Amino acid sequence: MIPSVDVPWNIAAGFLYLWGLNVVRISVSLWLLPLGISAWWRLPLWTIIVVNIGLIIVATTINSLVCRPLSALWEPVPGAVCLGWDQLVMYGKSYTCTVPTSTP
Question: How confident is the model at residue 64 (pLDDT cuts 50, 70, 90)?
Protein backbone atom coordinates (compact mmCIF):
# COMPACT_ATOMS: atom_id res chain seq x y z
CA MET A 1 0.00 0.00 0.00
CA ILE A 2 1.41 3.36 -1.05
CA PRO A 3 0.69 6.10 1.48
CA SER A 4 -1.30 8.97 0.09
CA VAL A 5 -0.01 12.48 0.55
CA ASP A 6 -3.59 13.79 0.78
CA VAL A 7 -4.68 11.76 3.81
CA PRO A 8 -2.79 13.76 6.48
CA TRP A 9 -4.15 16.96 4.94
CA ASN A 10 -7.67 15.52 4.93
CA ILE A 11 -7.36 14.66 8.62
CA ALA A 12 -6.11 18.18 9.38
CA ALA A 13 -8.99 19.62 7.35
CA GLY A 14 -11.42 17.51 9.40
CA PHE A 15 -10.05 18.99 12.62
CA LEU A 16 -10.31 22.50 11.17
CA TYR A 17 -13.87 21.83 9.99
CA LEU A 18 -15.00 20.64 13.43
CA TRP A 19 -13.31 23.55 15.18
CA GLY A 20 -14.52 26.10 12.63
CA LEU A 21 -18.14 24.97 12.74
CA ASN A 22 -18.28 25.12 16.53
CA VAL A 23 -16.35 28.39 16.80
CA VAL A 24 -18.78 30.05 14.38
CA ARG A 25 -21.72 28.94 16.53
CA ILE A 26 -20.00 30.21 19.67
CA SER A 27 -19.14 33.56 18.08
CA VAL A 28 -22.70 34.11 16.80
CA SER A 29 -24.04 33.30 20.27
CA LEU A 30 -21.60 35.74 21.86
CA TRP A 31 -22.61 38.35 19.29
CA LEU A 32 -26.31 37.89 20.17
CA LEU A 33 -25.81 38.00 23.96
CA PRO A 34 -25.85 41.81 24.30
CA LEU A 35 -29.14 42.04 22.38
CA GLY A 36 -31.15 40.28 25.07
CA ILE A 37 -32.01 41.75 28.42
CA SER A 38 -33.95 38.85 29.91
CA ALA A 39 -32.67 35.57 31.30
CA TRP A 40 -34.89 33.71 28.82
CA TRP A 41 -32.81 35.23 26.04
CA ARG A 42 -29.41 34.64 27.61
CA LEU A 43 -29.92 31.09 28.95
CA PRO A 44 -30.25 29.38 25.53
CA LEU A 45 -27.27 31.34 24.21
CA TRP A 46 -25.07 30.32 27.14
CA THR A 47 -26.29 26.75 26.69
CA ILE A 48 -25.26 26.83 23.04
CA ILE A 49 -21.84 28.21 23.99
CA VAL A 50 -21.20 25.58 26.67
CA VAL A 51 -22.45 22.68 24.51
CA ASN A 52 -20.25 23.74 21.59
CA ILE A 53 -17.17 24.05 23.80
CA GLY A 54 -17.91 20.52 25.01
CA LEU A 55 -18.32 19.30 21.44
CA ILE A 56 -14.96 20.81 20.47
CA ILE A 57 -13.28 18.95 23.33
CA VAL A 58 -15.03 15.64 22.62
CA ALA A 59 -14.56 15.76 18.83
CA THR A 60 -10.88 16.68 19.10
CA THR A 61 -10.26 13.93 21.66
CA ILE A 62 -12.05 11.20 19.71
CA ASN A 63 -10.53 12.23 16.38
CA SER A 64 -7.08 12.24 17.97
CA LEU A 65 -7.60 8.76 19.42
CA VAL A 66 -8.94 7.06 16.28
CA CYS A 67 -5.58 5.36 15.82
CA ARG A 68 -2.52 5.18 18.01
CA PRO A 69 -0.29 6.49 16.44
CA LEU A 70 -2.39 8.78 14.26
CA SER A 71 -0.16 8.12 11.25
CA ALA A 72 -1.62 4.60 11.11
CA LEU A 73 -4.59 6.12 9.30
CA TRP A 74 -2.56 6.72 6.14
CA GLU A 75 0.36 4.28 6.34
CA PRO A 76 0.95 0.84 7.81
CA VAL A 77 2.46 1.07 11.29
CA PRO A 78 3.44 -2.09 13.16
CA GLY A 79 1.56 -2.47 16.43
CA ALA A 80 -0.95 0.31 15.68
CA VAL A 81 -4.24 0.20 17.57
CA CYS A 82 -7.31 1.72 15.91
CA LEU A 83 -10.95 2.00 16.91
CA GLY A 84 -13.29 -0.47 15.31
CA TRP A 85 -15.64 0.47 12.49
CA ASP A 86 -18.70 0.04 14.75
CA GLN A 87 -17.28 2.49 17.30
CA LEU A 88 -16.54 5.09 14.60
CA VAL A 89 -20.04 4.76 13.14
CA MET A 90 -21.58 5.16 16.61
CA TYR A 91 -19.50 8.31 17.22
CA GLY A 92 -20.42 9.74 13.81
CA LYS A 93 -24.13 9.13 14.32
CA SER A 94 -24.16 10.57 17.82
CA TYR A 95 -22.22 13.68 16.74
CA THR A 96 -24.52 14.19 13.76
CA CYS A 97 -27.65 13.81 15.92
CA THR A 98 -26.27 16.20 18.54
CA VAL A 99 -25.19 18.98 16.21
CA PRO A 100 -27.64 20.19 13.56
CA THR A 101 -25.61 21.54 10.66
CA SER A 102 -28.43 22.98 8.60
CA THR A 103 -31.56 24.98 9.25
CA PRO A 104 -35.00 23.64 8.35
Answer: confident
